[in-house]
Write a structure and sequence with these properties.
This protein is mainly β and 198 residues long. The chain folds into two domains: 7-92, Jelly Rolls, CATH 2.60.120; 115-197, Jelly Rolls, CATH 2.60.120.10. 0% of the residues lie in helices and 49% in strands. It is built from no helices and 18 strands. The protein has strands at residues 7-13, 18-23, 27-35, 42-46, 54-56, 61-66, 69-73, 80-86, 95-97, 103-105, 115-121, 128-133, 137-142, 147-150, 161-163, 169-171, 179-185, 190-197. The strands form five sheets. Strands 1-8-3-6 form a four-stranded antiparallel β-sheet, with no helix packed on it. Strands 2-7-4-5 form a four-stranded antiparallel β-sheet, with no helix packed on it. The protein has a four-stranded antiparallel β-sheet with strand order 11-18-13-16, with no helix packed on it. Strand 9 and strand 10 (103-105) form a beta hairpin. The protein starts with 6 loop residues before the first strand and ends with a strand. Residues 95-109 have low confidence and may be disordered.
Length: 198
């Protein structure tokens, strides 16, 4: 897969357990199109099996350049998942089949009205949160220290996405009814910066 407009759909049988199974495929975007179960469990590492795992769920995407990636999942009988791998995030527009059998376009409308949040985190390794509401996209970073981010209260110390010092974590093409970010930092007296678009 090469060039700006190429993509592939990878269908996986999660009945087969994997531990860092290497997929040699270049790209810049991985999106979980659908799964036969909403509770499927699978994670991915980009470029190096020593990197932190990023959990995938239905209608969840990762933007980041990679030459290969590594898949891990427990054996989940009867469950399949379709992953969309694209060379270029901007080359694709993803549609979703909704319950009413109509087709809705995910976030093709321009995101407007950005909101900034500066969350003071006085204590290290302590969970803080910020409610964002129904947003189209967001970006989060810490002014100092290493950040851990998750979407479930109480899980920022155990099931999280790592945001190393000086980097950011962002999501686009999302349409939650309401979204709250939960996070903690390994440095005391820092500020977590968030920008969210609706």
């Amino acid at each position: 897969m090469n060039g700006q407009d190429f993509y592939s759909v990878l269908t996986l049988d999660l009945g087969i357990a994997r531990t860092n199974q290497m997929i040699e495929m270049m790209g810049g975007f991985i999106y979980c199109l659908n799964s036969s179960s909403p509770s499927m469990a699978i994670s991915v590492k980009l470029n190096n099996s020593a990197n932190d795992s990023i959990p995938l769920s239905r209608q969840y995407g990762i933007i980041g350049q990679f030459k290969k990636f590594f898949l891990t999942n427990t054996a989940q009988s009867g469950i399949t998942v379709n992953l969309l791998i694209s060379s270029n995030f901007d080359a694709l527009r993803v549609f979703e089949q909704v319950a009413s059998s109509s087709v809705s376009l995910l976030n093709l409308a321009e995101a407007v009205a950005p909101t900034l949040y500066n969350v003071a985190c006085a204590s290290a390794n302590t969970e803080y949160s910020q409610a964002l509401g129904g947003v189209r996209k967001f970006l989060i970073r810490a002014r100092t220290g290493n950040l851990k981010v998750c979407f479930t209260s109480g899980q920022s110390g155990s099931t999280f996405v790592s945001v190393p010092a000086g980097t950011t974590y962002s999501e686009d093409l999302i349409h939650p009814t309401a979204l709250t970010l939960y996070f903690q930092n390994d440095t005391a007296s820092t500020v977590v910066e968030i920008i969210a678009w609706v």
